[in-house]
């Protein structure tokens, strides 16, 4: 959707003057702040008057920031219109931000598009550090994302993964969009866990999955797109690029879906016997929250949005990257299949209980997340007060990017960092003992660290491990005739394959009924 053109020359001139005035105002504030403080800002490119470095931004921000870090060092700053961006690209400084000064940096500079799609920032991702955020996170982890909570809905995950395997078996020998199939699988798991809804019919499955995937892709693309409203907050009300308007259209589509689901659930009332996460939230909303923190219908919808948008694309992208990397190196794919044959057998099907007995598969997943972290810059942090990081001043309200993508490809930490080599995480190696998903080691933290670490790590681990194991155990895979594998990346707020992975599944199990 393209943003609307401006009606008159005078209106355009008015916006331009407003932009220049706002930018000069922020530049003056920064200069005054620097004069008051003894420490200087981190080094960085000078940029242009008013707009700073905005004209020079590469759309692939993670690689652009990595190149600047090689010039200016592990912490640098760049002026983005009226905002100051600070980029961190080393484990030591990441530790300062995410651990040593975690309470200060645990807030968000909410982008205009993010505020629209999350009902004013009422979700877990964009809520400021405080009682409401703690309540929302505690509620989600306790009721849905804890190991015990995930155990209770294993049947849902199993049903959807087996349904996908059956669907792929029916199309064996034909090219499959792997990412699209995995997106639909994850979407069905999440929606059935949230409110019991799935897409079952093959035709409907394809159409609905495609629609949802396009919606989520549009949302993440808009969240990652540079927006004048974010760089010149005084101009946010004008929405010069139309990004907030586009996001509002997407919100309306999701809001209608959520409203219909909530209406149906309330009509069911006591008839519904099985309690899901929506049922729990509606009960809490009816009670008004706890004694200290209110819980409203806005929070209900914002959390539904978090789960649907935040959990689908990230998980399906990781599985797609894993399959692509293994097709690039067939010996790794064969080694993973050999392990599956030894643990599961060709006359059996994969269960989630097998996953802990598949150490090589775990190494593959760790290596995928090292090379292709789902959020390469994490979600930007925002200091609630002026601070000192790496010996430099970081003003209150700065937008702080932690380039986990660059850290996990740092040649001073990783041998052959651009090489896909799961064995670097093998048992007995230093990596196996040091590098996990806990965020405690700042050489490797694909899910972030500190109090803002991803709440859905346990679910992501289970879904990626179970889905990938099932795909590899059930089928051999090859590229379509004459096709070439493309491993290039495309940056949004979520890291995607630039070109979808299309591959051909070939059944490899001993009995056809194992695919039913």
Which structural category fits the helices and strands?
A: mainly alpha
Give the overall shape, derived from the CA principal axes.
Answer: globular
Estimated helix fraction = 40-55%
Question: Roughly how many Å is the radius of gyration?
Answer: 24 Å
Strand neighbour order, sheet with most strands? 1-2-6
State mean pLDDT (0 to 100 scale).
89
CATH superfamily: Cytochrome P450
Q: What letter string, H or E per element, gives the SSE order? A: HHEEHHHHHHEHHHHHHHHEEEHHHEEEE
Distance between the termini: 42 Å
Give the number of helices: 19
The CATH architecture can be named as: Orthogonal Bundle
CATH secondary-structure class: Mainly Alpha
What fraction of residues sit in β-strands?
5-15%
The total domain count is 1
Number-wise, the strands total 10
Largest sheet: 3 strands, mixed
GO molecular function, one term: monooxygenase activity
Protein name: Geraniol 8-hydroxylase
Family: Belongs to the cytochrome P450 family.
Organism: Ananas comosus (Pineapple)
Describe the structure.
The chain is mostly helical. It has one domain: Cytochrome p450. 52% of the residues lie in helices and 8% in strands. The protein is built from 19 helices and 10 strands. It has a 3-stranded mixed sheet, with helices on one face. The longest helix has 32 residues, at 297-328. The chain is globular, with a radius of gyration of 24 Å. The relative contact order is 0.16. Mean pLDDT is 89; it is low at 1-15 and 31-37.
